[in-house]
Amino acid sequence: MPDPRHSIPPAYGGVEPDAAWVEEIKRLAEARNATILAHNYQIPAIQDIADHTGDSLALSRIAAETDADEIIFCGVHFMAETAKILSPEKRVLIPDERAGCSLADSITADDLRAWKADYPDAVVVSYVNTTAEVKGLTDICCTSSNAVDVVRSIDPDRDVLFLPDQFLGAHVKRETGRDNIHIWAGECHVHAGINGSELTEQTEAHPEAELFIHPECGCATSALYLAGEGIVPEDRVKILSTGGMIDAARQSKSGQVLVATEVGMLHQLRQAAPEIDFRAVNEKAACPYMKMITPAALLRCLTEGRDEVFVAPDVAERARRSVERMIAIGNPGSGE
Ligand code: SF4
């Protein structure tokens, strides 16, 4: 049930992703010398037209390396901000700047300032699903692939403020055994739907199926926590990055795989291994913010050059340091 604080604005509509649209998008992108990057949770038409599809950090790295003049980031706003933080000299556009993230929105910069004031000597660790301003107030960012390593790298005598995802925080607390870790009570409200009973029900109904969990999504951090609790048999659970999920799909001998992540990922998996029956643990786990990047929004973006993503240079500088520290610790994976 979406949190009422997170109402979803109506997306730009009225454009079909037909052959004429494909041709026009390609023509406009070439004329602008723009590269189109699409997150894995985008609708299939956007994934298919993009120059690159992937996770947020993988896309940000591609953005930093491209020689295109413009980066069209088809994903949610904090991801486009991360691309801008890592490539401040490039023009970054998002087809609809209202595409937010309920997890990133669960803590504001003011919330974090107030929290830090209560623990002035604490080290702040933030999951990448945060705004640029929050990253700018963070000591070390983390992905769920390296969250445990990041916290282990911190002096055991210092308090840690971990935000914003409470499931990932609980997982890190259990793994590190630290009792001086304070966890912000945030979550992905959209996907709070993947819960223990649903996972148990699905794994019982499909006893031969493997279970792929992508740990970087707000919806999957609860699955990660539950798998650690032993609710799902360990030998059938694979915690995988998106790239790892595609490799595992190609190698899998299973006829059926349950996938605990946003349903957009199924498009890539079915293309990689058409003989496997991939099923979503929760069919409703579709991020409506991601789905705001419609064919109409992308056309508007390339026609009007909107919406441009701005991050104040001082905020970007501080945020970049926290992201670079993250990349240096353990295996950060590639973000949500
Ligand atoms: S799925 Fe949840 S965590 Fe991921 S972008 Fe959407 S709202 Fe944010």
UniProtKB/TrEMBL annotation:
It catalyses: iminosuccinate + dihydroxyacetone phosphate = quinolinate + phosphate + 2 H2O + H(+). GO terms for biological process: 'de novo' NAD+ biosynthetic process from L-aspartate. One of its GO terms (molecular function) is quinolinate synthetase A activity. [4Fe-4S] cluster binds at C101, C188, C287. Its cofactor is [4Fe-4S] cluster. Iminosuccinate binds at H39, S56, Y127, V128, N129, S144, H214, P215, E216, T242. Its EC number is 2.5.1.72. Transmembrane segments: none annotated. It is found in: Cytoplasm. InterPro entries: NadA, NadA_sf, Quinolinate_synth_type2. GO terms for cellular component: cytosol. Pfam families: NadA. It is an enzyme of class 2 (transferase). Coiled coil: none annotated. NCBIfam families: nadA, PRK09375.1-2, PRK09375.1-4. PANTHER family: QUINOLINATE SYNTHASE, CHLOROPLASTIC (PTHR30573:SF0), QUINOLINATE SYNTHETASE A (PTHR30573). HAMAP family: NadA_type2 (MF_00568). Belongs to the quinolinate synthase family. Type 2 subfamily. Catalyzes the condensation of iminoaspartate with dihydroxyacetone phosphate to form quinolinate. This is Quinolinate synthase.
